[in-house]
Amino acid sequence: MFSKDNLPHAPLPLPDRFDWPDEEMLARVTAFFELMTKRHSVRDFSRRPVPRAVIERAVATAGRAPSGANHQPWFFAAISDSGLKARIRAEAEAEEERFYEGGAGDEWLKALEPLGTDAAKPHLEDAPWLIVIFAQRWGEWDDGTRFKNYYVPESVGIATGFLIAALHQAGLSCLTHTPNPMKFLNATLGRPASEKPVMILAVGHPADNATVPAVAKMKKPLEDILTVFDGS
């Protein structure tokens, strides 16, 4: 973090270092790849409770993400209260109905067809937890004056990736949900105007009858997402 006071650069010896042989590096990254291939977005959640401590540790993991100027421009609101989840669902579905009734263009709706989505979002109540992710567009000092945050979308996106990976590591499923607009979440959750809600993560155990769209298993092969310039 940083302070309104001048903070000098103070380099510290690298506190954590890993010096694994090449074979172990490959084995570790392959094991993580195999774990992440088992990550699936689901819309059907069990009502099985998830301990608060698990959610808190996953969010703490997200808070370890790198960020522009180390400003850490994110905030997470974790909700298990059934009444509040119902309110968020009602407000989100109102926005979704406008989206599906003409707010989205034909091309966008066509792209969503293979996913089988519509304006109904029961997962926002069924999932034991909702995590709302806010991007802090600017910060404020104690006296109310503002300071600028840097690379906010990139920083929040990286932190969200950390969060999703941590939840998957815990054996949980989640669904990214982005009703547009989402300004209602500021008022609902008491967050300031400086913060922009960017995503709702529904989090929990998948229901016994959970399904995933077949198209969701169609991932681009490595050669379509990577070019290597190795000098050879």
UniProtKB/TrEMBL annotation:
Matches recorded under Pfam families: Nitroreductase
Keyword Flavoprotein tagged: yes
Domain Nitroreductase: 37-205
Domain of life: Bacteria
Keywords for the protein's UniProt record, in alphabetical order: Flavoprotein, FMN, Oxidoreductase
The keyword Oxidoreductase is annotated on this UniProt entry: yes
InterPro entries: Nitroreductase (IPR029479), Nitroreductase-like (IPR000415), Nitroreductase/BluB (IPR050627)
PANTHER family: IODOTYROSINE DEIODINASE 1, NADPH NITROREDUCTASE
Name of the protein: Oxidoreductase
Originating species: Sinisalibacter aestuarii
